[in-house]
Specification:
Layout (H helix, E strand, L loop, with lengths): L2 H13 L7 E5 L4 H17 L2 E8 L4 H17 L4 E5 L2 H8 L3 H19 L4 E3 L4 H14 L12 E2 L2 E2 L7 H10 L16 H16 L4 H30 E4 L3 E5 H4 L4 H12 L11 H12 L5 E5 L3 E5 L3 E6 L7 H6 L3 E4 L4 E4 L4 E9 L5 H6 L5 E5 L7 E5 L5 E2 L8 E2 H7 L4 H6 L1 E4 L5 E4 L3 E2 L11 E9 L1
Parallel strand pairs: 1-2, 1-4, 2-3, 4-6
Antiparallel strand pairs: 5-6, 7-8, 8-11, 9-10, 10-11, 12-16, 13-14, 14-22, 15-22, 16-19, 17-18, 19-20, 20-21
Helix pairs in contact: 2-7, 4-5, 6-8, 6-9, 9-11, 11-12
Length: 476
C-alpha cells in the first residue's frame, strides 16, 4: 500500500473522521489536492466500507479553464463509476450583489452547495482537500490580520460533517503521490495571481521566511498550532467558570451578560468571556478578529447610555447601563422603525429551528421516509400546529413569511385557487389573527401551508407519497 494512503488512514483514525457505512461527498475541484483525495478514498472505500459522491463547483471566473476542470472531474467520476453533481454560477456577480470579495463569495457558494447535498443525498460527511501547507498559510494569514490567539488553531481536521483527510500531508507529498500514480489533474491559473492574499503568503512571504529566517518555519508553525490547541482546551474550562459568573440569561438567539461584573475583571478574562459568548451563536469564529473583541470591550467600558455594534456574521451587540446583550441582528432589534420596516422572512432548513421572536413562534422541519409511517395515523394526528407535505412535490428551500396582497393558494381538497384574504373571511378569522398569520412558501413562491390553518392541496400526502416533510409551529 502506498505510504501516503497509510498516512491518510492514520489521520482518519486519529480524528475519528469516518464511520462504517458513511456516504461521503467529495469536493473535487480538479486540482492536485482534491484529485489525490479522490484517488485515495476511492482506493480504500471497500476497506472503510463507505460510499462516495463527487461534487464540483463551476465558479464562472475563468470560463475556459473552469469548463475544462468541470469536464475533467465529470469524466473522472464517470470512469470511477461514482455519482457526480455540479453547481454552476457566477461568483463575481454574487460577490458584487453581496458586497463581498470574490474569495468570500466563492466560499459561501461552495459551502451552501455542499450543505444542500448533505440533505439531498442523506450523506454523513463532506471531504475537503485542505492539507498541511494550507494550514501554514492560514495561520500566517490570521496572524497578519490580527485574529488573536484562537486564530492559531488553524483549519480544523474535523468540524461538524466536514472532514479533511489530507490535513497532515504536505503539498510535496500530494504532488509526489499524483506522480507515482500517474494521476492527471488541472492547474488553476488564479493560484499564481498575487492580488489574492493567500497567494501572496504562499509565493512571497513563506519563501522569504524560509530563505532569510528559518528553513523549518512551516514545521514550527504546525507545532505552534498543536500547542495552542492543547493550551486553549485547558483555558476553555477556566473561561467557562467566569462566563457562568457573568451570565444573566441565555436564549437560543441571544445572551445577556452582567456589565458590572464583566468590567471588574482583567482584560484577558474579559476577552475570553466575550469570545465564549459569541461561540454560542457561531461555534467557529473565522470572521471575528481581535479588533472586534476590543470594540465590544470598549463598548461596555464606556459610561454612556445604550450603544450597539454590528459584527461579521450578522451578529449584533447592544450595551445598556446594566447589560451587555449579544445576538443575531435579525432577532436583536435596535429601533421601532427597524422593527416595522424590515419584512419578516426566514429560510427554513431541515432539522433546524427557525425562531420569529417578535411573534413568539418557532418552526421545526423534519423529513421522513414514508415507508416507516402509517398513512391513516399520520392523517389523523395532524393538527393546526403541524403539517405533513409530500417532500418530492416541493421546490426547496422553503421560507416562512408574512402575508402579501394578492396571495393565493389551493385549499385542501379543492380544485380551485382562493385568495388568502378571502379564505380568512370565509373562516371568520379576526383581523388580529390574520395579521399574525405566517405563510410557508417554496422556492417558486407557492404557498404550501398557511401555518396554523391549512395546507395547499397541491402538496398533500397521498398513498403514492414516498417522502414526508413534517413542519411544526410551536409557541415560545
Amino acid at each position: 500500500m502506498d505510504k501516503l494512503i497509510i498516512k491518510v488512514i492514520k489521520t482518519i483514525e486519529k480524528y475519528g473522521m469516518i464511520e462504517e457505512g458513511d456516504k461521503i461527498i467529495l469536493a473535487v475541484s480538479g486540482g492536485p489536492d482534491s484529485t489525490c483525495l479522490l484517488d485515495i478514498l476511492n482506493n480504500i472505500k471497500e476497506q472503510l466500507k463507505i460510499s462516495l459522491f463527487v461534487a464540483h463547483v463551476h465558479h464562472g471566473i475563468r470560463e475556459k479553464e473552469a469548463d475544462v476542470e468541470a469536464r475533467f472531474v465529470r469524466l473522472k467520476s464517470y470512469h470511477l463509476n461514482l455519482p457526480f453533481q455540479q453547481l454552476s454560477l457566477s461568483v463575481p456577480e454574487m460577490a458584487k450583489e453581496m458586497g463581498l470579495s470574490i474569495e468570500q463569495a466563492g466560499r459561501i457558494a461552495r459551502y451552501k452547495f455542499f450543505q444542500e447535498l448533505i440533505v439531498k443525498h442523506q450523506a454523513q460527511k463532506i471531504a475537503l482537500g485542505h492539507h498541511a501547507d494550507d494550514q501554514i498559510e492560514t495561520i500566517l494569514m490570521r496572524l497578519i490580520r490580527g485574529s488573536g490567539l484562537r486564530g492559531l488553531r488553524g483549519i480544523p481536521a474535523k468540524r461538524n460533517y466536514f472532514i479533511r483527510p489530507l490535513i497532515e500531508c504536505s503539498r510535496l507529498e500530494i504532488e509526489a503521490y499524483c506522480k507515482r500514480r500517474r494521476l492527471a489533474y488541472c492547474f488553476d491559473s488564479t493560484n499564481k495571481e498575487p492580488r489574492y492574499f493567500r497567494n501572496k503568503i504562499r509565493q512571497q512571504l513563506i519563501p522569504l521566511l524560509k530563505e532569510e529566517y528559518n528553513p523549518a518555519i512551516g514545521k514550527n508553525l504546525l507545532q505552534l498550532q498543536a500547542i495552542v490547541n492543547d493550551e486553549l482546551d485547558f483555558w476553555d474550562e477556566i473561561t467557562e467558570h467566569y462566563y457562568l459568573k457573568t451570565l444573566k440569561k441565555e436564549g437560543k438567539y441571544y445572551i445577556i451578560l452582567d456589565n458590572h461584573i464583566l468590567r471588574g475583571w482583567p482584560a484577558g478574562i474579559q476577552r475570553s468571556v466575550i469570545r465564549r459568548a459569541l461561540r454560542h451563536f457561531k461555534k467557529f469564529l473565522e470572521d471575528i478578529q481581535f479588533n472586534h473583541i476590543e470594540a465590544i470591550r470598549l463598548l461596555y467600558l464606556k459610561d454612556e447610555g445604550e450603544k450597539f455594534l454590528d459584527l461579521p456574521g450578522e451578529i449584533r451587540v447592544r450595551k445598556s447601563y446594566q447589560d451587555l446583550v449579544l445576538g443575531f441582528a435579525k432577532h436583536l432589534r435596535i429601533t421601532k422603525k427597524e422593527e416595522t420596516c424590515k419584512p419578516v422572512e426566514f429560510e427554513l432548513a431541515l432539522d433546524r429551528e427557525v425562531v420569529i421572536a417578535n411573534l413568539g413562534l418557532k418552526f421545526i422541519v423534519q423529513k421522513y421516509d414514508y415507508k416507516y409511517l402509517d398513512y391513516e395515523n399520520l392523517i389523523n394526528r395532524i393538527s393546526r400546529s403541524e403539517a405533513c407535505l409530500d417532500y418530492d412535490k416541493l421546490n426547496f428551500p422553503l421560507r416562512v413569511r408574512g402575508r402579501k396582497p394578492g396571495d393565493r393558494f389551493q385549499p385542501l381538497n379543492s380544485t380551485f385557487f382562493k385568495k388568502v384574504k378571502d379564505y380568512f373571511i370565509d373562516k371568520k378569522v379576526d383581523r388580529y389573527e390574520r395579521d399574525k398569520a405566517m405563510l410557508i412558501v417554496d422556492n417558486s413562491n407557492r404557498i404550501v401551508w398557511i401555518a396554523g390553518f391549512q395546507i395547499d392541496n397541491r402538496f398533500k400526502i397521498t398513498r403514492k407519497t414516498k417522502t414526508v416533510l413534517h413542519i411544526q409551529k410551536i409557541a415560545i
